[in-house]
Predict the structure.
Amino acid sequence: MGRIIAVANQKGGVGKTTTAINVAACLAKKGKRVLAVDLDPQGNMTSGLGIDKNDLGYTVYDMMTDQCNIGECMLINVFPNLNVIPASRELAGAEVEFVGMEDMQHILKNNLKKVKSKYDFIIIDCPPALGMLTVNALTAANTVLVPIQCEFFALDGLSQLIYTVNLIKKKLNRTLKIEGVVFTMYDSRTNLSAQVVENVRENLTQNIYNTVIPRNVRLAEAPSYGLPIIIYDPKSAGAEHYMMLADEIIENDIVTV
Ligand SMILES: Nc1ncnc2c1ncn2[C@@H]1O[C@H](COP(=O)(O)OP(=O)(O)OP(=O)(O)O)[C@@H](O)[C@H]1O
Ligand SMILES: [Mg+2]
């Protein structure tokens, strides 16, 4: 039975896409069957996985507006064991187009339902907003993975995200769970990162992954080569830590429905 994980935090630039790409790639590397879904009009997951955004056929937008079926927009074996549903700028218009559509919160869920049994993990990269795209991701998901950047305002907005998750649980997806919080961009040279981690650990009741993702320049470079870190630089600290996170995610028996 597969697990659908939405990588979400409405705060921008906290490491959602980096985490979604690399968790997906590390799970695939470990032999899991993985589908990565780009649900952000910025399309950073798409390009970070080496897919040319200017040369796309059908995308997640076409699927969600009923212009193609899920098989038609899916790219197969982009990396071994890793299929991808790409996103383009057009997706930005989807929020408006959904209005009035029947069951608009369930569009993604209804599509993923058709393929879920073929995967061990489906990883959804969410945009930095709590709009209808993220609502669709949270409605489709079994769990939410929340990246938190190790910086002073780390917890800003987290209560709003947790509030939204609880609302979705009540109204749309009774069994949704918080998979866990993962710290990103940890800088061991400063006290700040350590203080943030300590402070959040004290104040959060949610599961927090033991693996902390370090700030690592190789992680920032990899997307411009269209490669996940385990292929771009498998010996880097970034690769090592995302592999450890993938292990924790596999072991996390929180799920599934
Ligand atoms: N551990 C890391 N070490 C170094 N750079 C990182 C790390 N994680 C992410 N970055 C860089 O920080 C920037 C923001 O990361 P990313 O795009 O993953 O965040 P995001 O939450 O998806 O952003 P958005 O909200 O815009 O979608 C990117 O340039 C990325 O390469
Ligand atoms: Mg992103």
